[in-house]
Amino acid sequence: MMSSENSHPAPEGLNGEEPLKIILAEDDKDDQELFIDALQEADVSSEVVTVENGQELVDTLKDKSQPDPDIIFIDINMPAKGGKQALEEIKADKELKGIPAVMLSTWDHPSDIEETFEKGADLYVQKPNSFSGFVMILKKVFFLHWAKALLNPVKKLFFVSEKNISQGDS
């Protein structure tokens, strides 16, 4: 299997190989559980580490005793250090900037989407209102969207919501 040299490889855990190492930065315990349950339901083989805020995320990523994750999911609104600030620090760090970063938010403010795109996020996911919506979005992110968006980030593939998936946008 060939991979392009300057882009992110497809996640390994999708072909029955090693589970994906995922870090989820999310301060809401219910949202953490929902995310992990939806990953399992979507059949994404993964090991998820959760952190409560952006500072904890940056500290975890800089801890060299831990292997780098395959992908990070960052909630935009968190205490101590918000998701946008954490994203900026990660993308400014030459050792961490290659880790795919997916922003999570309840909102779809154009300014947030634009700002995180400019700061180097790989994807912006609007949190769905339902469990089945979360499963559908994670399937889209890991099985369909990954190759198209993460290998070639373009603006129209950057924002993912339950609404634009159910409109047949693939």
Automatic annotation (TrEMBL):
Protein's UniProt keywords contain Lipoprotein: no
Superkingdom, natural source: Bacteria
Post-translational modification 4-aspartylphosphate, affected residues: 75
All residue ranges annotated as the Response regulatory domain in the record: 21-142
Family annotation (InterPro entries): CheY-like_superfamily, Sig_transdc_resp-reg_receiver, TCS_response_regulator
Pfam families (UniProt xref): Response_reg
Keyword match rRNA-binding: no
Region (Disordered) location: 1-20
SMART domains named among the record's database cross-references: REC
Keywords, ordered alphabetically: Phosphoprotein
UniProt name for this protein: Response regulator
Source organism: Flavobacterium ginsenosidimutans
